[in-house]
């Protein structure tokens, strides 16, 4: 009862409660403050119209609370909440709660109903903070301004509470479940707000509808399943939960469009708020600066993220907050995220101060024509919103990492595939989704590290970036190895799981293989919590180059990326060119078939397309047709893959050609595909005699020979052997014959 | 009077001549581009567009310019860069990094050079650069920081690209191409190489990241164009200080290009090599004959130059040998004929020489063995003879196996030109059995 009173008081001080008479229409929510509309009273059993004295009392209270909220908004202590408040308004479910003077609220969340003293305490605190139902709690967790009266509770307290809530959520209890049912689905207050509910329900439905439309590589369903298992909630609960999360928090999968719309709704208010909050500017400066390039919507988004996951730093969370921004900064995101964690402005080591390529003085020109736009999108560096044709691999890797994350264990996975099959891109996409899920608290948070064998000068250097990204220390390779071994073998109190991507694994090979051994040994240790995704080109790498003890530690979790088939390549191009009429359908098919037959390398495919747009552009300056046709593609392919040797021979000088003929003649005479220059020289002189030409001197022949050798039409020995230098053809004799025949 | 006049004109001429020498020598030696490149308009456009897109749109690219030596790869690139630099927006927006495979022989040196040319070393301060690994991390970090729209594009020009391929793991190439294929600082990597098989040398991962743009330069002009180049290279520019002299000079060049013997000579050169550098070399030789008293290049000058140019280097050495040394070479030639190119040693040569002495020659050429040995060693020093294995301490010098580095044709040609060659030696050279 005491808690109820407390709650009541805080409620009154907090909110502007506006009682409404029956039948009175609900005013449109445009106010800045939190407003509760009350229509009916609840006496524990049924709803009644409000009594007149309630009106008068609440009015009186309103006056008070109006003052208090104003002071609250100006307080610099609570920047996050205040900035978020308008957002909250747009999203929140408007609920009218009936009250009497002696309110006896029976509505209880499943958490508050928990019998343990701990949860009771929690409950009381929560109630003191004016939270009532799980819905309300959820709101707070996301972006609620619901605060303790007069701002006595600082943000950290709220966070603590959130943490408690999470804990409580994972406690399985039958009672909880039961109460949950009544609390959320069957409780009268829920019904009481039914006149407002449909709208919000519709909103959420709309949200979800869009989501499901746009999901490609979404781990969404899986996440739900796993959280179901883990939290031991009933199915309904989980759905309810996820629903709320979806509604409230910007789900990772919100399309840019929908995101923009809801952002638009709030951006106007945000502007108002910000003008109110001049005092807060200084605190928030960093965030604003970092997001100055993006619109209000994204900056606001950031703050939401910050509130939701306050322990993580704002940078890493921002990267994935909007599809737009993630796309912009996507390439360095995965590698950078953990790196940036310390203050981004200050360098990690004073010695290697942040190097930077100078800024350009003129802005990069925007693509002007369709072809230029297409070329931009077809560039390998352009990150598509989704990775088509790798859904299965994505899902497998995602499941693997996710399960390890949830279990809090370590493990290795070996991923192989020829170059240009999207291995690294897929793995990065997985990490991106996992990070997003971790932000939404669907997964335990983790640390992400990437090393690339090709970007190291020596295999042993691999330890250095790992340690640097984990702890920020910068030491030598051997020392780093020792520190890492210690780090992974001893149990850390609050160690996060580490996901380590080892790209180009084969380059980490050493004679003793201790780098590979260590990398794959750490995950097997009990406390390491290390997940390794090793990427290389050959499928049988573990069997071929690894010692048994290393291969055994790597385990049998393998995945191989098959080269793209022509249909997949076609899909990749089409998805990049989404509804742009730059390519003929046949042209796309031609290039996909060609590349699929050659290598299945997506990079090659994109490069050919890009070159074809250039050729098309070049051609279309004469006759204006801005679409890439088969002819352009064919030309591009010819340019890239035709053997240069035939042309090189044809454009060689006469004596060079005769020399090649002489070589063929000498080969035929000797029956061996190798000859000394002296032998060829004799043939050459003979040929010249037949042609009636002046026979060359040995010096000239040597010059001709070395020229052909420099082009690698011939393979020649070092020239200090002079006449006894041996020559061989670098191309087949048939090719030479073909080139010289005319 | 008339003498004085001629002196005046000769001094005026002298100034003109020295001007001509200066202009043309600069043209031939520094490979100063004269006029527009011809026959490569397509390649020119391709490269120009490519670099323009890099600078203007910030698009990353990679390309290789492939062609035999002297086909104008660097010339093409320089021309394109020159034209690009005329655009203000480009001039202020482009960072260039020039690397040469012959200078940057490993990735460590190359990285330092890149850092220096990008002026990133000032970030490091006066600190001496750290380890190779740090350098690489440093540079990659710098390149990763940028993005397409805001960073200044960087143009990497790798001369002698094929030599970079031999660096360990091709780390530098991998990283450069990787940057060019990801959304980092816009870079364009241009490689210049004469190897046609360059793509086969790239490691598969590096190859996949390379965009496969290849610009081929093939010297695919015919003889008519070659004559035109000859005229262009030799004629004086319109802004020459003495107009009448320039007129005279150019008329002379026109005449030369129509002369039959000159055309034959050029044709011959053209048949040997389409490399324009060889033409430059020839013209340079002819140009050095031009003096005040001989103010215009004549056909005979060119002919002389061509003769000099085509001279066989080894045969030239033979001209300067003593009779004894010639005799030894002839002995070796006979040994080669008898044993079908099998290696020989000094003793065999000496025996052969002795045979000739005893049968044919009179005491006139009778030399002591040590003297013959000395002559043999002189041949060894001139590299007319080459030991087939390294000389070891234990093996006696007389019995070291050798090979002759001269062809029979060369020996016979040299003997024809050898002054005062004794007749019996000549006879002996034509046939080892001549004494019978």
What would you say this structure looks like, in words?
The complex is a heterodimer of chains A (742) and B (436). Chain A has 742 residues and is an alpha/beta fold. Chain A has 34 helices and twelve strands. The longest helix of chain A is centred in the N-terminal third of the chain and has 23 residues, at 52-74. In chain B, 39% of the residues are buried.
Distance between the termini of chain A: 107 Å
Rg of chain B, Cα atoms, Å: 30 Å
Q: How many extended strands of chain B?
A: 7
Largest sheet of chain B: 5 strands, parallel
Output the strand order for the largest sheet of chain B: 2-3-4-1-5
Average pLDDT confidence of chain A is: 67
Name the assembly state.
heterodimer
Biggest interface in this structure? Answer: A-B, 91 and 94 residues
H and E string of chain B: HHEHHEHHHEHHEHHEHHHHHHHHHEEHH
N/C terminus separation of chain B: 73 Å
Proportion of strand residues of chain B: 5-15%
Biggest sheet: strand arrangement of chain A:
6-7-8-5-9
Q: Pairing-aware structural class of the strands and helices of chain B?
A: alpha/beta
Unreliable stretches of chain A: 1-17, 29-33, 66-205, 211-266, 278-352
β-strand amount of chain A: 5-15%
| Record field, number of beta strands of chain A | 12
Keywords (chain B): DNA replication, DNA-binding, Nucleus
InterPro entries (chain B): AAA+_ATPase, ATPase_AAA_core, ORC4, ORC4_C, P-loop_NTPase
Pfam family, one (chain B): AAA
Function (chain B): Component of the origin recognition complex (ORC) that binds origins of replication.
């Amino acid at each position: 009862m005491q808690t109820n009173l407390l709650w009541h008081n805080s409620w009154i001080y907090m909110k502007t409660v506006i009682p409404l008479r029956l039948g009175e229409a609900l005013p449109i929510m445009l106010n800045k403050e939190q407003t509760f509309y009350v229509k009916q009273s609840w006496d524990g059993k049924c709803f009644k119209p409000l009594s007149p004295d309630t009106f008068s009392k609440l009015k009186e209270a309103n006056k008070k609370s109006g003052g208090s909220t104003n002071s609250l908004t100006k307080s610099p202590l609570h920047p996050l909440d205040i900035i978020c408040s308008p957002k909250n308004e747009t999203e929140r479910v408007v609920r009218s709660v009936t009250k009497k003077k002696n309110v006896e609220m029976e509505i209880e969340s499943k958490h508050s109903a928990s019998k343990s003293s701990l949860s009771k305490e929690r409950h009381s605190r929560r109630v003191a903070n004016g939270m009532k139902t799980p819905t309300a709690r959820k709101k707070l967790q996301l972006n609620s301004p619901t605060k303790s009266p007069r701002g006595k509770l600082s943000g950290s307290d709220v966070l603590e509470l959130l943490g408690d809530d999470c804990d409580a959520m994972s406690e399985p209890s039958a009672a909880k479940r039961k109460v949950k049912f009544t609390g959320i689905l069957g409780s009268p207050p829920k019904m009481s707000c039914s006149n407002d509910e449909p709208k919000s329900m519709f909103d959420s439905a709309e949200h979800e509808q869009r989501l499901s439309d746009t999901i490609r590589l979404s781990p969404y369903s899986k996440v739900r399943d796993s959280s179901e298992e883990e939290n031991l909630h009933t199915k309904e609960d989980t759905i309810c939960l996820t629903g709320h999360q979806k509604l409230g928090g910007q789900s990772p999968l919100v399309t840019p469009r929908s995101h923009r719309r809801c952002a638009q709704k709030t951006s106007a208010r945000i502007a108002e708020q910000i003008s109110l909050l001049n005092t807060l500017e200084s605190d928030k400066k960093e965030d604003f600066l970092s997001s100055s390039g993006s619109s209000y919507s994204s900056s606001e988004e950031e703050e939401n993220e910050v509130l939701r996951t306050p322990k993580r730093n704002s940078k890493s969370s921002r990267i994935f907050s909007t599809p737009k921004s993630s796309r912009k900064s996507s390439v360095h995101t995965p590698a950078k995220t953990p790196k940036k964690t310390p203050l981004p402005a200050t360098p990690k080591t004073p010695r290697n101060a942040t190097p930077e390529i100078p800024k350009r003085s003129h802005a990069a020109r925007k693509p002007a024509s369709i072809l230029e736009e297409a070329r931009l999108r077809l560039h390998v560096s352009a990150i598509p919103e989704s990775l088509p044709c790798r859904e299965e691999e994505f899902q497998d890797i995602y499941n693997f990492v996710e399960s390890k994350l949830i279990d809090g264990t370590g493990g290795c996975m070996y991923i192989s595939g020829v170059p240009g099959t999207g291995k690294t891109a897929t793995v990065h996409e997985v990490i991106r989704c996992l990070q997003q899920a971790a932000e939404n608290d669907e997964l335990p948070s983790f640390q992400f590290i990437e090393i690339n064998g090709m970007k190291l000068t020596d295999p042993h250097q691999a330890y250095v970036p790992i340690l640097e990204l984990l702890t920020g220390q910068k030491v030598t390779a051997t020392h780093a190895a020792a520190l890492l071994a210690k780090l992974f073998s001893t149990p850390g109190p609050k160690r996060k799981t580490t996901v380590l991507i080892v790209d180009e694994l084969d380059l980490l090979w050493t004679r003793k293989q201790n780098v590979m051994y260590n990398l794959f040994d750490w995950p097997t240790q009990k406390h390491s919590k290390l997940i390794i995704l090793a990427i290389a080109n050959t499928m049988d790498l573990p069997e071929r180059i690894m010692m048994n003890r290393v291969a055994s530690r790597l385990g049998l979790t393998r995945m191989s990326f098959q080269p793209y088939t022509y249909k997949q390549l076609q899909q990749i191009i089409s998805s990049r060119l989404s509804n742009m009429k730059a390519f003929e359908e046949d042209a796309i098919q031609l290039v996909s078939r060609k590349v699929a037959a050659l290598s299945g390398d997506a990079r090659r495919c994109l490069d050919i397309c890009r070159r074809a747009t250039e050729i098309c552009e070049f051609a279309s300056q004469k006759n204006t047709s801005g679409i890439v046709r088969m002819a352009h593609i064919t030309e591009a392919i010819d340019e890239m893959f035709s053997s240069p040797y035939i042309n090189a021979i044809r454009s060689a000088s006469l004596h060079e050609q005769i020399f090649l003929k002489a070589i063929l003649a000498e080969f035929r005479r000797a029956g061996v595909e190798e000859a000394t220059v002296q032998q060829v020289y004799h043939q050459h002189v003979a040929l010249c005699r037949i042609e009636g030409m002046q026979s060359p001197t040995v010096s000239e022949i040597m010059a001709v020979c070395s020229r052909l050798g420099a082009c690698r039409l011939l393979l020649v020995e070092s020239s200090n052997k002079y006449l006894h230098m041996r020559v061989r053809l670098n191309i087949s004799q048939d090719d030479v014959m073909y080139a010289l025949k005319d | 009077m008339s003498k004085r006049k001629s002196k005046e004109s000769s001094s005026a001429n002298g100034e003109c001549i020295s001007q001509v020498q200066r202009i043309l020598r600069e043209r031939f030696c520094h490979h100063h581009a004269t006029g527009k490149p011809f026959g490569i308009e397509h390649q020119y456009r391709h490269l120009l567009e490519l670099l323009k897109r890099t600078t203007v749109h910030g698009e990353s690219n990679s390309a290789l310019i492939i062609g035999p030596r002297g086909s104008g790869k660097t010339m093409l690139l320089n021309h394109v860069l020159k034209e690009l630099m005329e655009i203000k927006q480009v001039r202020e927006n482009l960072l260039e990094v020039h690397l040469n495979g012959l200078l940057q022989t490993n990735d460590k040196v190359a990285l330092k050079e890149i850092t220096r040319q990008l002026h990133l070393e000032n970030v490091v301060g006066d600190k001496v650069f750290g380890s190779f690994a740090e350098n690489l991390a440093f540079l990659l970090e710098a390149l990763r920081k940028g993005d397409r729209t805001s960073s200044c594009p960087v143009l990497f020009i790798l001369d002698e690209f094929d030599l970079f391929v031999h660096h360990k793991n091709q780390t530098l190439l991998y990283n450069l191409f990787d940057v060019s294929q990801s959304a980092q600082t816009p870079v364009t990597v241009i490689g210049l190489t004469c190897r046609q098989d360059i793509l086969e040398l790239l490691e598969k991962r590096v190859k996949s990241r390379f965009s496969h743009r290849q610009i081929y330069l093939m010297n695919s002009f015919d003889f008519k164009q070659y004559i035109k180049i000859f005229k262009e290279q030799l004629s004086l520019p319109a802004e020459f200080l003495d107009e009448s002299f320039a007129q005279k000079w150019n008329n002379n060049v026109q005449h030369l290009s129509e002369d039959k013997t000159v055309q034959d000579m050029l044709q011959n050169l053209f048949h040997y090599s389409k490399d324009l550098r060889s033409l430059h070399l020839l013209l340079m030789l002819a140009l050095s004959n031009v003096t005040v008293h001989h103010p215009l290049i004549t056909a005979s000058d060119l002919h002389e130059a061509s003769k000099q140019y085509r001279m066989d280097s080894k045969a030239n050495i033979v001209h300067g040998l003593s009779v004894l040394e010639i005799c030894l070479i002839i002995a070796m030639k006979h040994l080669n004929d008898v044993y079908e190119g099998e290696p020989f040693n000094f003793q065999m040569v000496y025996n052969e020489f002795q045979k000739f002495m005893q049968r044919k020659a009179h005491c006139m050429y009778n030399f002591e063995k040590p003297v013959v040995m000395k002559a043999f060693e002189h041949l060894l020093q001139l590299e007319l003879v080459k030991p087939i294995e390294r000389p070891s301490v234990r093996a006696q010098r007389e019995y070291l196996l050798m090979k002759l580095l001269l062809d029979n044709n060369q020996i016979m040609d040299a003997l024809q030109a050898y002054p005062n060659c004794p007749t019996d030696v000549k006879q002996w050279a034509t046939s080892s059995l001549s004494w019978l």
